[in-house]
Amino acid sequence: MRMAETHTRFSQRHPFIFGVLMIILAVALFIGATAFVRAMGWTTGSFSIGKDTIGVVRIEGTILDSSDVVSWIRTLRDDEDVKGVLLRVNSPGGAIAPSQEIYQAVTALAAQKPVVASYATVAASGGYYASAPAQIIVANPGSITASIGVMAEFVTLTEALEKLGIKPEVLTTGKYKAAGTPMRELSPAQREQILGMMLDMHDQFVDDVAKARGMDRDRVAAIADGRAVTGRQALALGLVDMLGSEQQAFDKLKELCQIEGKAVLKDGPVEEKTLLQEVLGTVKIEFDASTTPGLKFSF
């Protein structure tokens, strides 16, 4: 009884502080419940009983890390309630190894369940590579895709430093070790060695697209010159299977899964946020590969 009176007196004496504490408590409870739902793999609509479930994997933006996407693909692959998966791709590509890891995860997924890829504005280079193992690829007529090739980029600061009267020294234990450093120009031997790496990566790209698409390697190699094409051009080249919207891709996936009527969507990967980000929103600065020094390879 005395405790209740104390609480009453506190709320009366400090109504503002009491109100703020109640808001913080409510937010904490909400975020805790949200985190629990995410940990259980539940999404909007997934509490429905007796409905077939379709997984959705979103591959968006520059591909710099594959861990979240690969983990989500693995979750959907192991979920017996998920009958098939839609890959929604809106990516211009990115780093090579992460693109390959997503490719491998999609390959393993497609070996167990129907997978349909749906291309938004762009699904080029690494974005195309990562989704190539889907059984069916659906692109909008104006989607930008393909761009099969490898790019290496780096910045050389030697001339700028010379104008400032700065002469950098780079010591290495081998003639190839500092290839790509911004502190000096590439030597002919280094340039040749880097081009050799790029050609090997290029061959991997061509090999994997040919394998995933069931195409003759020479046919893929003939268009693997870095060119980007529209969805309609990609259809003529055999790089996609049909033209259509995301909804048409869903309909095709439901057909492959033999699902009639509506299906529950299990959408991800879910972006994890801290408590402060949930309350105040997210402020994020993204750095493109070209903003940092050093040699960068990308699909």
Helical content, roughly?
40-55%
Number of strands: 10
Assign the CATH superfamily: 2-enoyl-CoA Hydratase, Chain A, domain 1
Distance between termini? 69 Å
Q: What Rg do the Cα atoms give?
A: 25 Å
For the record, the CATH class is Alpha Beta
Count of separate DSSP helical elements: 11
| CATH architect. name | Alpha-Beta Complex
Structural class designation: alpha/beta
Morphology call = flat
Low-pLDDT runs: 1-6, 37-50, 277-292
Mean of residue pLDDT?
Answer: 85
Whole-number total of structural domains: 1
Q: How large is the share of residues in beta strands?
A: 15-25%
**CATH fold assignment:** 2-enoyl-CoA Hydratase, Chain A, domain 1
Instruction: Report the sheet with the most strands, covering strand number, pairing sense and barrel closure.
Output: 8 strands, mixed
Order of helices and strands: HHEHEHEHEEEHHHEHEHEHE
Task: Supply the key terms.
about 300 residues, alpha/beta, 2-enoyl-CoA Hydratase, Chain A, domain 1, 8-stranded mixed sheet, two-stranded antiparallel ribbon, 10 strands, about 45% helix, about 15% strand, flat, disordered N terminus
